[in-house]
């Protein structure tokens, strides 16, 4: 165990301890007399001394000391009762600390670092033990208080767990604490007087990996768009990495994958996530993936036990998994024996007498007159009680099924049995007996004539007649399967062993293929559990027109067109019904390309209703997330496939630097299970393996194909040649044992070869795939999917960003790199709302199905936060008001949300616009719809003597320039009016006096703290008085009936006998009345945009203010540091004084 560092004087202890290992800074010692067979006397002597002098050493005969070279003072940092225990601590020091220490400049820093690390490890060990004992851990409460005080998140930011570790900053490790919360990875360190805070949102993590560097053998690397961060020296790095991976995966799916969010209730409320929930969630996902069960299945118990396996005449050790509707068993030895028992198949669950040979046994009896015996079950009574309760719920939800169980001894056929073979009680899979159907259901069934047999049976008879050799091979296979059924079972509850895998790899006989697909996929349970469901879907969906049905109709005649079954209306109609029914069942998926090819093959080997449930099993369980808007699942598996290529075929990976080419080629392998690539008679053998082993079979077959072509691929010159090599190879994968005549592949790339290509036997290819690449477990594949899902989702986010920027960049003058950083800020502002507030009336989740520009939108409060961070027009307390007006101006459709383009366009005007563009934007901010009647800041007009019109405004000019200046200004106003008439764009409404006063107030606020503040105030006072007089003149002109189209000049008399000139005013011609464009009534005080612009242009200080160059980049840099410090949606995420040290990645 680790010890709180205490000083030890080694000089006086040499006779009691023997040094066994030594490194630069650490010594491992053994107590004399311990572990030394030849030192009996020494052992007795030291033992006596231990009893008197050092009782602690008696229980810890081994210890590790921290030494400072050149000093006689050492510190004990660890002790152990056994060699194994102390060696484990020693190895941890060598791997995590020893290579790190040389980066420090002095010995004192080394001692301080090591002691701090050991103390942190002790605290973490204590916390872990408390958690394991399910006590209320005080340490966690302390950590929570520190987390809240150090990072000051809202209460909704729930802490999941924390770890002691080092964060590497360059070549220097910073010892501290890693806090993992529902939305962020945070690190805090205060070491050697330096404080470091780090905040990384999970949603910005692009890669999580365990790696090593020149200093550390095992680190966790967190990659974000801007930086890589390494964390090391964890007490339990495997656990820490697993929790980090799970949190990143859950958060990205919750925030970036709307399709998964809606399907997974566990993502709806992130505040309910705990460390234990994450572990349970991971176990649940593994359970569903391993046994390929429906997404809705929830794992309840995992119990170590042993199952009686009659084929081996012994009990096989393994684990029992129980869920809502299933009891499953998996042997500890991988592939030895697996069993899936749907509860609807169970008749009784009984406890047997406990004996020494059969401890804690239970018997589970199923409908096929078979029983499973489990022994060595801990807490058997509670387990049986829970199973019986769930069995009762299953039976109550299937009353017809329950009635048939009660009548099972009668001769009536059993409804919905999952046995599909001829010696079972139910001959027809999933079909009700006539006595269980009511009249209405019979009428429904008669309205659509469903195919009662697989299409293969109608079209393959003629082809089989002459193939005696193939037929004999089929008979041999059927005989082997019959023998296997007798020994291992023939229902969905059969024992699944390595033997059945070998039979599947040989190819399932044509007569059994559809039935075994139903059993292996467990589609047979869905079929039996939902009588009449498919008929109802067909009734509901046929005749309805939507996008999915249009796509289906387009692809119907492209589905195996070379097969005779789909060259007539019988096959086409069946395919149409199945695809349309599924689109109606699952509108989120609807119809995706490649579903037609897969469904065509299913219809060849299964009845129509069976084919429908097989399609359900493939789309919703066996290939999750493959058939949706973005085919995320398929892309994740392509990324996993790339990793497997690098791992299994390193030479090929080295030659083909960019494996995305192979991934693009192999995408169709995964989406169509090779059905569109290989000849049909060969591809169905691949589908056999897929239904038994899941996606693992496709991965390993893909690797086998690449290995078989590795030499040619390494010699290929370009991607096109590589594509040709693989396509030619796959087109010549034959199935010599097939009893069917060969059917050409319409989807193959090269159907007519110029030169003969070698033929590959599909059975040999599948055998090689299992032999060479079959060692990857479901657990390993699921773990790789975790890692690569992060990469794929972030890749989609990058695509979204690039598409949005591509649209915005041509319309603005902001530098592309600055625009990219602005987009990141905009997206983060949207996500902050997702972190802590989901109840806003206008809040919208990220929806990847929307157009790129509309995927991220922000509301008024979020826009205000961003405006404060990046806008150059800050007005003190008036900034919030200005931001709200800007939001209303940009919110053209009035849905209370704006897109990124709106933010970019207004900032572009502020930073890069001409003066007239800036003034026009300011003008728009002070008229409707930006300015409203009930706005909080518009009720009290400014009261300032500078705005009074009781005294005329005078402008200091020399006598010689006075006339010219006056004429110049009048001409400017006339030119502006003519230019306005020439333009076809809609004229800006005139500004009322109340609006004008608000406009002036904004200008005053903008000039505050400017270096030229005094000059600007004087200039705006001058312009304001001028504009007030212009407005009054216009008001008088309208009141006197002056509505002509000519200009009216009204010069003010001289104010005094001074040399200053009076100011003229000029009212521009009044436009035709447009009640929608201007609410101003006749006779009101008004001023136009042209008046304001011309007046502002007369003051050079104002011109300089609006034309001075502004830099966006410093604002963006500051915003990245301070975005989290602003209030978010009314929640106080207070500003922190340490923000100069706070990094957000």
Automatic annotation (TrEMBL):
The keyword Repeat applies. Pfam families: GRAM (PF02893), RabGAP-TBC (PF00566). Residues 507-694 form the Rab-GAP TBC domain. CDD domains: PH-GRAM1_TBC1D8 (cd13349), PH-GRAM2_TBC1D8 (cd13353). SMART domains: GRAM, TBC. InterPro entries: EF-hand-dom_pair (IPR011992), GRAM (IPR004182), PH-like_dom_sf (IPR011993), Rab-GAP-TBC_dom (IPR000195), Rab-GAP_TBC_sf (IPR035969), TBC1D8_PH-GRAM1 (IPR036009), TBC1D8_PH-GRAM2 (IPR036016). Keywords: GTPase activation, Repeat. PANTHER family: PROTEIN VASCULAR ASSOCIATED DEATH 1, CHLOROPLASTIC, TBC1 DOMAIN FAMILY MEMBER 8 ISOFORM X1. This is TBC1 domain family member 8. It comes from Apteryx mantelli.
């Amino acid at each position: 165990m680790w010890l709180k560092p205490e000083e030890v004087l080694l000089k006086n202890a040499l006779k009691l301890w023997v040094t066994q290992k030594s490194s630069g800074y650490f010594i491992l010692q053994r107590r004399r007399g311990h572990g030394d067979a030849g030192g009996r006397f020494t052992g007795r002597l030291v033992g006596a001394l231990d009893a008197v002098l050092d009782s602690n050493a008696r229980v810890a005969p081994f210890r590790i000391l921290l030494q400072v070279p050149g000093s006689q003072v050492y510190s004990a940092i660890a002790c152990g009762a056994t060699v194994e225990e102390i060696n484990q601590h020693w190895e941890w020091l060598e791997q995590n600390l020893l290579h790190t220490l040389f980066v420090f400049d002095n010995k004192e820093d080394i001692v301080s670092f090591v002691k701090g690390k050991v103390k942190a490890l002790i605290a973490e060990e204590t916390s872990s033990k408390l958690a394991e004992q399910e006590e209320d851990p005080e340490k966690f409460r302390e950590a929570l208080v520190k987390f809240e005080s150090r990072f000051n998140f809202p209460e909704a930011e729930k802490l999941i767990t924390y770890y002691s570790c080092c964060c590497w900053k360059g070549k220097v490790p910073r010892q501290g604490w890693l806090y993992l919360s529902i939305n962020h990875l945070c690190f805090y360190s205060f070491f050697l007087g330096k404080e470091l805070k780090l905040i990384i949102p999970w949603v910005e993590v692009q890669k999580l990996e365990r790696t090593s560097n020149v200093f550390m053998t095992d680190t966790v690397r967190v990659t974000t768009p801007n930086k890589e961060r390494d964390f090391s020296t964890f007490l339990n790095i495997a656990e820490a990495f697993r929790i980090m991976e799970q949190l990143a995966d859950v958060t990205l799916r919750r925030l970036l994958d709307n399709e998964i969010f809606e399907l997974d209730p566990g993502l709806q409320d992130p505040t309910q996530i705990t460390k234990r929930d994450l572990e349970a969630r991971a176990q649940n996902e593994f359970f569903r993936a391993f046994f390929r069960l429906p997404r809705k299945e929830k794992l309840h118990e995992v119990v170590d036990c042993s199952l009686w396996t009659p084929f081996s005449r012994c009990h096989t050790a393994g684990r029992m998994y129980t869920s809502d509707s299933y009891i499953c068993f998996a042997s500890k030895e991988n592939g030895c024996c697996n069993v899936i028992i749907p509860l609807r198949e169970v008749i009784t669950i009984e406890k047997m007498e406990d004996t020494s040979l059969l401890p804690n046994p239970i018997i589970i009896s199923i409908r096929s007159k078979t029983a499973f015996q489990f022994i060595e079950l801990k807490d058997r009574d509670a387990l049986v009680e829970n199973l019986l309760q769930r069995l009762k719920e299953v039976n109550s939800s299937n009353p017809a099924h329950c009635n048939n169980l009660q009548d099972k001894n009668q001769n009536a056929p059993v409804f919905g049995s999952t046995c599909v073979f001829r010696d079972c009680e139910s001959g027809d899979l999933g079909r009700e007996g006539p006595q269980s159907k009511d009249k209405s259901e019979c009428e429904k069934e008669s309205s659509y004539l469903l195919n009662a047999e697989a299409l293969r049976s109608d079209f393959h008879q003629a082809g089989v007649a002459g193939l005696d050799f193939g037929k004999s091979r089929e008979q041999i296979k059927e005989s082997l399967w019959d023998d296997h059924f007798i020994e291992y079972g023939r229902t969905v509850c059969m024992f699944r062993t390595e033997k059945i895998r070998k039979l599947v790899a040989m190819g399932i006989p044509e007569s059994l293929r559809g039935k075994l697909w139903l059993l292996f996929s467990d589609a047979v349970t869905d079929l039996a559990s939902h009588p009449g469901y498919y008929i109802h879907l067909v009734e509901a969906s046929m005749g309805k027109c939507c996008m999915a049905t249009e796509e289906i109709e387009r692809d119907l005649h492209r589905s195996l067109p070379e097969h005779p079954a789909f060259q007539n209306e019988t096959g086409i109609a069946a395919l149409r019904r199945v695809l349309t029914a599924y689109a109606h069942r699952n509108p989120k998926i609807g119809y995706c390309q490649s579903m037609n090819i897969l469904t065509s093959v299913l219809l060849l080997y299964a009845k129509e209703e069976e084919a429908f449930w097989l399609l359900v099993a493939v789309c919703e369980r066996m290939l999750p997330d493959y058939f949706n808007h973005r085919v995320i699942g398929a892309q994740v598996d392509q990324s996993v496939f790339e990793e497997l290529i690098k791992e299994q075929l390193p030479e090929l990976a080295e030659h083909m630097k960019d494996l995305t080419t192979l991934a693009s080629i192999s995408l169709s392998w995964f989406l169509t299970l090779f059905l569109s690539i290989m000849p049909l008679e060969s591809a169905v053998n691949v589908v056999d393996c897929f239904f038994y082993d899941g996606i693992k079979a496709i991965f390993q077959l893909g690797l086998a194909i690449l290995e078989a072509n590795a030499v040619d691929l390494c010699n290929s010159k370009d991607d096109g040649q590589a594509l040709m090599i693989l396509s030619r190879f796959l087109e010549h994968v034959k199935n010599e044992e097939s009893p069917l005549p060969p059917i050409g592949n319409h989807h193959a790339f090269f159907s007519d070869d110029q030169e003969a290509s070698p033929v590959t036997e599909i059975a040999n290819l599948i055998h090689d795939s299992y032999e060479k690449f079959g060692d990857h477990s479901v657990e390993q594949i699921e773990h790789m999917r975790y890692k690569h899902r992060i990469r794929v989702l972030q890749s989609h986010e990058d695509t979204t960003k690039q598409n949005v920027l591509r649209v915005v960049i041509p319309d603005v003058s902001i530098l592309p790199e600055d625009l990219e950083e602005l987009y990141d800020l905009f997206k983060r502002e949207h996500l902050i709302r997702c972190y802590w507030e989901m109840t806003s009336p206008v809040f919208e989740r990220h929806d990847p199905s929307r157009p790129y520009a509309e995927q991220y939108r922000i509301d008024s409060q979020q826009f205000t936060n961003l405006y404060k961070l990046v806008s150059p027009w800050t007005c003190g307390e008036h900034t919030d008001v200005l931001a709200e007006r800007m939001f209303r101006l940009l919110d053209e459709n009035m849905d209370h949300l704006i897109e990124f383009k709106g933010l970019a366009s207004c900032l572009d005007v502020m930073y890069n616009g001409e003066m007239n563009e800036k003034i026009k934007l300011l003008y728009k901010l002070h008229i409707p719809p930006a300015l409203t009647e009930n706005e909080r800041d518009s009720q009290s007009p400014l009261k300032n003597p500078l705005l009074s019109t009781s005294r005329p405004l005078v402008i200091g000019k020399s006598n010689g320039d006075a006339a010219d200046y006056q004429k110049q200004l009048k001409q400017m106003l006339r030119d502006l009016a003519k230019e306005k008439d020439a333009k076809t764009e809609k004229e800006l409404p005139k500004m009322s006096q109340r609006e004008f006063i608000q406009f002036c107030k904004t200008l005053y606020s903008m000039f505050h703290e400017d270096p030229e503040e005094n000059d600007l105030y004087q200039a705006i006072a001058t312009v304001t008085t001028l504009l007030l007089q212009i407005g009054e003149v216009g008001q008088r002109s309208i009141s006197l009936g002056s509505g002509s189209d000519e200009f009216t000049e009204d010069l003010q008399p001289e104010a005094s006998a001074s040399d200053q000139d009076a100011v003229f005013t000029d009212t521009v011609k009044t436009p035709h009345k447009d009640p929608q464009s201007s609410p101003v009534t006749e006779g009101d005080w008004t001023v136009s945009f042209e008046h304001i612009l011309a007046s502002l242009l007369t003051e050079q200080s104002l011109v300089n203010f609006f034309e001075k160059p502004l830099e966006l980049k410093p604002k963006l840099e500051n915003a990245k540091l301070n975005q989290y410090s602003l209030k978010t949606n009314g929640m106080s995420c207070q500003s922190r004084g340490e923000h100069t040290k706070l990094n957000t990645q």
